[in-house]
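Task card 7
Instruction: Convert sequence to structure tokens.
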Amino acid sequence: MKNILFVCTGNSPRGIIAENIIKNEYSNMFKAYSAGNNPSGKINEDINKFLEKNKNLIFLIIGLKF
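Output:
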């Protein structure tokens, strides 16, 4: 099993979304983690709601901007 680390400035929202996609869809192949070089220490509430609402959603993150 391979490890994947997604790193972005605040670890919210891109890294968290990417980590959750891998955990939900590819957990048999990868262990996913996310981190930030200046993390806020909490998950953005809007992202948390999005992840709860779209647990089964698969989408391509390439080029996604927030």
